[in-house]
Amino acid sequence: xxxxxxxxxxxxxxxxxxxxxxxxxxxxxxxxxxxxxxxxxxxxxxxxxxxxxxxxxxxxxxxxxxxxxxxxxxxxxxxxxxxxxxxxxxxxxxxxxxxxxxxxxxxxxxxxxxxxxxxxxxxxxxxxxxxxxxxxxxxxxxxxxxxxxxxxxxxxxxxxxxxxxxxxxxxxxxxxxxxxxxxxxxxxxxxxxxxxxxxxxxxxxxxxxxxxxxxxxxxxxxxxxxxxxxxxxxxxxxxxxxxxxxxxxxxxxxxxxxxxxxxxxxxxxxxxxxxxxxxxxxxxxxxxxxxxxxxxxxxxxxxxxxxxxxxxxxxxxxxxxxxxxxxxxxxxxxxxxxxxxxxxxxxxxxxxxxxxxxxxxxxxxxxxxxxxxxxxxxxxxxxxxxxxxxxxxxxxxxxxxxxxxxxxxxxxxxxxxxxxxxxxxxxxxxxxxxxxxxxxxxxxxxxxxxxxxxxxxxxxxxxxxxxxxxxxxxxxxxxxxxxxxxxxxxxxxxxxxxxxxxxxxxxxxxxxxxxxxxxxxxxxxxxxxxxxxxxxxxxxxxxxxxxxxxxxxxxxxxxxxxxxxxxxxxxxxxxxxxxxxxxxxxxxx
Length: 589
Ligand SMILES: Cc1ncc(C[n+]2csc(CCOP(=O)(O)OP(=O)(O)O)c2C)c(N)n1
Ligand SMILES: [Mg+2]
Known about the structure:
The protein is built from 20 helices and 20 strands. It is an alpha/beta fold and 589 residues long.
């Protein structure tokens, strides 16, 4: 668990009294749940809880992370959970803060990360409401705003009920498949005084269940099918960040002599430089991956993000399919993030790594070799220094600039070509935003960077300029709390994804493709990305326009990151996506 951030910061003067208040109890429970940080933007609906965190707990365990927008607070918790697998707490002010946070909650939900979201409402008892503002910020069934994309919510009616709600929300958020939960505290319950602190729970007795085991019969049949297969394919999907799980996965693949596909929307799941790895991690499978799937006789889907969509893209696939996933438990009829319904000849209802261990045990596969923390391995040579930047040249320059460094790639932009870089460890790459809600990159980078500090890895992100600007005010939190990272903004001065779409529409309608940039290009004036960073206390560098200048900026930036600084480099790139992404985005079926 990462240590507290900047221990000299935001230390309250000692408080030795003031009685016991409802929110003091909730703050104590938060500490009891072993939550290290609570990301928030303030609001009067939780002024009681805010006071308790500062004056009862002394702003430690958990420590507050002040954010300039609720969307950033949630994104920070999201990034943190992607590294640790642990939930961070977030507090959102009444209905308005919840509305601000909601897109980021959707991203976290789609990405299946645990998160403890707390909220507050004006007094449920109308007689207690202050004129005007308490009425504005009280909604009936506030959680209805987000209920379709969280696992559980409650609005407890008393302090005692609040304790139970917090315990239950914690268990549910951490139970696989993990996800966000929401507890909404009535301001009056927070601000009610009590004679004594109640008996606090024995937290060890309110833990998530042990991992569900797959059916013995299912594992036996899966092992038999895989053991006999002539050409098996493993779809390495939403697996854990655990190195022992990674080792066993690789060992199983080697024993089966299987082929493996990985996905750039989720974190590193298999060594991409392994001889069994096929094609490249991508948003949409390409022809090569399709060929692999069409040639398979057995496919093992390890909670692959979209097996039905992948099969559709591949064409005629004859293989028997073993589907490992518990994701169906979260499918609720509102969102379609469950994707198409895949066929399955054997279905194992457990986490993908539990299945891997069980199948490996059945086949007598050893533990495998735990991966090491290694320096980056780009798959491109360094480009000539005077080459103008595009997304491919940027990848080559990044590799050169980060040479010999052990980093975690926290985020890659939409146009990234998966073949340009290798991942050899679960922390080499953390994947994407889950819900494709733009404006999550900065917050998720900060949360991941916070969690990565103890790993010795340097957090590195390549962010789209649109993503960067939508959430630019997230960065102040990194400067304030001293969270180091290197962010390279792949600045094509456009919401380029949508230029791709306008081009498709123009072609289909025989209209001028030359107009695709209108309403998309972020130019005239060009944004001073480095200035936006500097204005908030970060180190801002650039703009750079060539490979050589980017390599130099990265090297300078790395020195600063190692001194604890958050660094942003503005890399001006020619607009463009890799062809596979363009094809996937613009398909009509
Ligand atoms: C909240 C939200 N608004 C709009 C979109 C539509 N959208 C998808 S990608 C994209 C462009 C993102 O721009 P940038 O981060 O600069 O990436 P680029 O495509 O230019 O590489 C937009 C606007 C979205 N997915 N989410
Ligand atoms: Mg852009």
